[in-house]
Design brief:
The structure is a single chain. The chain folds into 3 domains: about 130 residues, no CATH class; about 70 residues, OB fold (Dihydrolipoamide Acetyltransferase, E2P), CATH 2.40.50; about 130 residues, no CATH class. The chain contains 9 helices and 25 strands. The chain starts with 5 loop residues before the first helix and ends in a 9-residue tail after the last helix.
């Protein structure tokens, strides 16, 4: 058998190569390495497309946004106002049994082990499983039109998410001290949530932006740094309103549509919100109203105010209201049979109630200490009493003259029995059938 020499040849070749390369300078060969790409993606919530929508599937490794959000939550990588969304711990418990938003309930575990959330009046859920509730909660946050939220994207995949929810109020007065700033509101809120009245909060001056002043719309929120306050962005506009062929109100700002926010407006009174001012204009027969439009994020409206135009508008409304009182007949019979045919009439009770509404508005106009927002409040209430529409929610809600309510939970329930039908609206629908003058 012939002896193999392959081992010898291998050793010799290795020795030869070693001697050959010994005289060659050493060279370092770099292995190509791609750097990790980390970016931040800011999304402005539009109120239509939440983070779990299929639109965002490609941003998650699972190829499914809903599953991807659940995975982020499980990893503790989702924060709302700097607070991590509760996760399931190793022992099967939860890292927390609630997540508060600006001092009020946002997400919480119920006594029976189910979970509920309240992000905004239109974005709520009750008695869900933990797995469903936390994902629905986060998606609801991303539907808060008027905020922006941030995604941390690593190599094209979302690895973290954070959102800051801001609340809205119209500051009746603002006072800045040496260390903190405080503001008051025109009322006491509508009782829509369990959040604290901002009039009771002190905002550290280091956390105040935009130089908010009295009669400004403000945004405020609480995070790990404490309470923050900022003046909302604004511009001067002209408001108009009409009713279309279907009976719906058509609202316009500078002749165009506008986008309403989904932020909590609990401590902004109806007359400074985004939609109710238009209703008051319609009730009172106003148009071409100069106002300030207030914004949260670009293009998203959180309210309106008339500013210096509030007092003259109230005076003009009072002139119209007093003319109505003197023009409309009173039917002592209560059915118009004692009023000339074709003449508008009201009952004595309707006349007396509206007379009280006019007197209350006049007292506000005569006040030396009323603010523009308080003039607007008087105008709003007078407009309800004058032109409120039968059965319309905004006509009867908290209408102490011809509506019902309970002062948003701060008073005793009341119901006048008139279902929001204003004095002038009632009179227009009731014409005399008699022959007398």
């Amino acid at each position: 058998m012939k002896k193999s020499t392959s081992g010898f040849i291998g050793v010799a070749l290795a020795s030869t190569l070693a001697m050959s390369f010994a005289s060659v300078p050493s060279v370092a060969f770099a292995v190509p390495h791609r750097a990790t790409q980390v970016t931040t993606k800011t999304i402005y919530a539009d109120g239509v497309t939440g983070i779990t929508a299929a639109t965002y599937d490609s941003l998650f490794t699972s190829g499914n946004a809903e599953q991807g959000v659940a995975a982020l939550i499980a990893a503790g990588a989702v924060k709302v106002n700097d607070v991590p969304v509760p996760t399931v711990t190793g022992d099967g418990e939860y890292s927390a049994d609630q997540l508060d938003i600006n001092g009020g309930s946002g997400l919480w575990e119920n006594a029976d082990g189910s979970w509920s959330y309240n992000v905004q009046i239109l974005l709520q859920g009750s008695n869900e499983s933990y797995a469903a509730a936390v994902v629905d909660f986060v998606n609801a946050v991303t539907l808060m039109r008027g905020i922006s939220y941030r995604l941390t994207v690593t190599d094209g995949v979302v690895t973290a998410m954070s959102a800051t929810i801001k609340d809205v109020a119209f500051a009746n007065t603002v006072s800045k001290g040496s260390k903190s700033t405080e503001f008051t509101i025109a009322g006491h809120g509508d009782g829509g949530t369990d959040k604290p009245n901002p009039s009771t909060i002190s905002f550290p001056n280091n956390n105040v932006a935009g130089r908010p002043k009295s009669q400004n719309m403000v945004l405020y929120w609480e995070d790990a740094e404490g309470w923050h306050l900022e003046r909302a962005a604004s511009k001067n506009v002209v408001l108009d309103v009409s009713r279309d062929s279907s009976g719906n109100l058509t609202e316009s700002v500078d002749g165009a549509d506008f986008t309403d926010s989904r932020l909590t407006l609990q401590y902004s009174e109806p007359w400074n919100r985004p939609t109710q001012p238009f209703r008051a204009m319609y009730w009172m027969g106003e148009n071409n109203v100069s106002a300030t439009q207030w914004f949260a994020t670009p293009g998203v409206t959180v309210g309106f105010s008339r500013g210096a135009g509030a007092r003259p508008a109230l005076a003009a409304a009072l002139t119209k209201a007093n003319k109505a009182l003197s023009t409309v007949a009173v039917s002592s019979a209560g059915d118009g049979s004692d009023v000339a045919e074709g003449t508008m009439w009201v009952t004595q009770a309707y006349h007396d109630i509206f007379d009280k509404a006019v007197a209350d508005a006049q007292a506000e106009l005569d006040s030396e200490h009323a603010t523009n927002s308080e003039y607007e409040g008087a105008l709003y209430r007078l407009a309800q009493a004058y032109g409120g529409q039968t059965g319309d929610r905004f006509s009867w809600l908290e209408n102490t003259y011809f509506g019902s309510g309970d002062d948003y939970g701060f008073g005793e329930p009341f119901d006048t029995g008139y279902n929001g039908t204003g004095f002038w609206t009632f009179a227009q629908a009731h014409l005399g059938t008699g022959t007398g003058s």
